[in-house]
Amino acid sequence: MEWQGDGIVLSSSKFGETDALLEVMSRENGRHRGFVKGGSGKRLGPVLQAGNFLTLKWRSRIEENLGRFTVELDRSPLGLIMGDGLRLMTLSAMVSVVSASLPERENHPAVYDSLKAMIEYVERSDVDPAGWAAALVRLEMGILSDLGYGLDLSECAATGSDEDLVYVSPKSARAVSRAAGRPYHDKLLTLPSFLMGPVVEEVGTRAAIEGLNLTGYFLERQVWQVRHRTPPQARERLLSKLVSMAKKSVD
């Protein structure tokens, strides 16, 4: 059995003395793992860094086996973001969320396309750091949708109105208007305005936090708990950093 195509590195770790265990997100074959001969050495080690874009060939005598990757570096976003802690933190959160959320070897081309686009956005955009976190929120919205747990933000669950939608019901995953949700404010999730329109360049830190809290709520209950996973540590670090930034801006 074999396949070849493009992939994005989600993680790599040492496998034996000199090899590496590589986890990638590919467009046609989903989240996939395999070992790389010499992958922990000086030549290939830098190639297998999370977020790198690779040309891959996977081969195994039996489909169910781990299999072996041969890899070539297509390009790396790390050169442009190295030294920028928040960009690196966001990139790490993105790949870790995909790794924690998707079943192995299940085709999710829309998630691959979204991950690719969001990495490129973080790589090249000079927006406020909260804008990069908002890109992660959009990636997570796409993951939820692709797994069948998408949020319905088209109209108010209580009134059917499509105006002034500012909450999401944690039970139905549907939007709720300000007026209908006011009596239940403490029981509803906040819907940040940047999710209600086209992609915007400027997103406030608090709005980014609200977005991560929103998608994180549904990912944890619908996806991570089912897969016996905890929220990815890289995502938690990014969220904590944003909360710290928000507090400093108030002080």
TrEMBL record:
<dbReference type="GO" id="GO:0006310">
    <property type="term" value="P:DNA recombination"/>
</dbReference>
<dbReference type="InterPro" id="IPR042242">
    <property type="entry name" value="RecO_C"/>
</dbReference>
<keyword id="KW-0234">DNA repair</keyword>
<dbReference type="Pfam" id="PF11967">
    <property type="entry name" value="RecO_N"/>
</dbReference>
<keyword id="KW-0233">DNA recombination</keyword>
<protein>
    <recommendedName>
        <fullName>DNA repair protein RecO</fullName>
    </recommendedName>
</protein>
<dbReference type="InterPro" id="IPR012340">
    <property type="entry name" value="NA-bd_OB-fold"/>
</dbReference>
<dbReference type="GO" id="GO:0006302">
    <property type="term" value="P:double-strand break repair"/>
</dbReference>
<dbReference type="GO" id="GO:0043590">
    <property type="term" value="C:bacterial nucleoid"/>
</dbReference>
<dbReference type="InterPro" id="IPR022572">
    <property type="entry name" value="DNA_rep/recomb_RecO_N"/>
</dbReference>
<feature type="domain" description="DNA replication/recombination mediator RecO N-terminal">
    <location>
        <begin position="1"/>
        <end position="71"/>
    </location>
</feature>
<dbReference type="InterPro" id="IPR003717">
    <property type="entry name" value="RecO"/>
</dbReference>
<comment type="similarity">
    <text>Belongs to the RecO family.</text>
</comment>
<dbReference type="Pfam" id="PF02565">
    <property type="entry name" value="RecO_C"/>
</dbReference>
<comment type="function">
    <text>Involved in DNA repair and RecF pathway recombination.</text>
</comment>
<dbReference type="InterPro" id="IPR037278">
    <property type="entry name" value="ARFGAP/RecO"/>
</dbReference>
<keyword id="KW-0227">DNA damage</keyword>
